[in-house]
Every structure is written in C-alpha cells, then in structure tokens.
Amino acid sequence: MNNLSPGSDSLLVPSQAVREPGDAPSPPLPAHLEQLADRARGYVEAASSANTRRAYASDWKHFSAWCRRQGLEVLPPSAQTVGLYITACASGTATADHQPNSVATIERRLSALTWTYAQRGTPLDRADRHIATVLAGIRNTHAAPPRQKEAVLPEDVIAMLETLDRGTLRGLRDRAMLLIGFAGALRRSEIVGLDVDRDDTEDGRGWVEILDKGMIVTLRGKTGWREVEIGRGSSDATCPVIALQTWLKLAKIGHGPLFRRVIGQGKDVGPDRLTDRQVARLVKCAALAAGVRGDLPEGEREEKFAGHSLRAGLASSAEVDERYVQKQLGHASAEMTRRYQRRRDRFRVNLTKAAGL
C-alpha cells in the first residue's frame, strides 16, 4: 500500500520516486544530474503552497487508510474505488467517528487524489461516471450555504486596535498586522509571508516599499505576482504605513521577515516569521476583546472571526467603485468580490423602486 506524500514524487526526479511492489525500478540518475534533480524538486514544491501540500498529504493518507481497511489497492487509480470513497466520506462511514464530510471537504479530498495521481504519472479521470455522477449527487443532496467569516468593519478595527498595548513590541506588531491586513485586504498567509525587501529570504512571499503617499506591497500569488497599493490613513493612529514604520523602528528590523515572534519576555524580536495561524488567532482575540458583534452568543462569536475577517471587511466597507475593490483583492471576477461583501447596505441599489413599484 502506498503512502505517497504529495511533493515527494515527480516524473522530474525518478531517483526519488515512491514505487509500489512490482514496479520496474527507475534507473539511477547520473551523478552530474543530481544537483539538477534537487532544483527540480524545489520547483515541484513551489508549484503549490505549504498549506496546500499539507492538506493534500493528509487527504492522501486518509484515502490510503480507507483503502487498506476495505482491502482495496490505491494503484493503479480506479474511478470506481474513488467513487466509493467519496460516497463513504459523504455518508460518514469513511472513518470510525461516523462524521460525514462536508461537500467542500470532499471536493478538496478529490483534488488531492487527482493531484497526487498526476504526480505519479498515473492520471485519475475525474470525468468518469463513477466519480462525476456520484459527486453531482453528493452536491445536490448535501450542499449547504457557505459559512463565511464575519467581516470586521473600520469601526471594529479601531476598537480592536484599542485592545492592544502600544507600549509593547507585541502590541506594535499586532497593530501593524491588523492595519495592513485590513487596508490591503490581504490573506493571512500573505501578511506573514512579507519581507522587508525583495529577495531577503527564500521562503518570502512578497515585500513592501514605503513611499510618500503610502506603500506598495508586492505579492506572489497562485497566478503570479501582483501589487497592492495601501494609502496612508486619515490619522496617525489608524495609518497602516505609520504602524509598520513604528514596528520596524522599535523592533530594529531592517532585513528579512517583516512580522516575527516577540521573545525574551516581550523585550526582543526573534528571527523567525510568524505563521498564518497566529494572524487568525490575533483577529479572533482582538475582535472578542473589542466586543465586535456583541449581540451574538459568546460561543457563536468565537466561530465568527478569523484572518479572512480583515479581507472581507475591506470588501464590505470601501465606498468606491467595485472594480477598485476587485483589484485590491486580486479577484478575476466581480462575482468573486461580491462573495466577500458581508455587513454592508445590501439595498443601496433598490431595483424594486427603480422598476417603479
């Protein structure tokens, strides 16, 4: 049984391929190509984010374990086996806890299998009726409205900033992250992936350039590089540029990761960049401390906020032409941008009255 981890196998690196019993062994690479093979493995990893690779590896492990319990083989790929697997996921029989997976989880698991099989050079046909028809039935039967994170609006962000201690490095760092994340409509991975300058680190996902009227954030995304413009705020207390400059100055950061761990009882800054989970934790804790959506029960409030709340907040509150919001979020379509618009006046355009009723 194969427990192939995505990213560990590639046609580009046959000497490292994970093989099944009975597979013909691949000829070893000549010594002068080993360095090129190492570079190829790096490109394979760069083709997807670390979070995606972790999720895909977990999904492959889940599928492999299910096949092992059913006495089925994972190779060669079988559309019928995969169809039975996603059926088990939807019905709650794929694992011992009998918890059915959501449609979104099932679709991600299927993407993981497709990706992993492709990496082995043994493609899985998702259009096969054993998969496509079953998946369509699962969507029709179990699909539910998406559970979106709550948007934090400008007044919420201001209240959240007041919960942070301006006299500590941690407080200054968190202020800068909240303001840049909101004003730039950045994903949590984009926030923590920023460096001070271009090419500072190998794992950096972008960098910042501070100008007179604001800052330019250059980001590496799924479809290439893009630039996000963040203007200066209407006051120093809510200006993302000033917040970032203050953090960099007092944390004595001139090179490398922009947002780092605070160590030494809060008096020093370490070399390691923060993880995206810490952004989600910051947004949740600050929103709860500020009493955002205090009209909701405590348990429900805890599930409402995460890193995406900043991104949705800008999309919901910026009173500008929609195309500018779409550009800031890096969306290919206006429809995708509208999905991010939460707590706003949805009836600013009243088609009922416009039609004469």
UniProtKB/TrEMBL annotation:
Q: Which UniProt keywords apply?
A: DNA recombination, DNA-binding, Plasmid
* BP GO annotations: DNA integration; DNA recombination
Q: Could you tell me which residues belong to the region Disordered? A: 1-28
Per UniProt, residues of the Tyr recombinase domain are 147-356
List the molecular function annotations (GO) for this entry: DNA binding
Keyword DNA-binding in annotation? yes
| PANTHER family assigned | DNA ADENINE METHYLTRANSFERASE, PHAGE_INTEGRASE DOMAIN-CONTAINING PROTEIN
This chain's protein is named Phage integrase
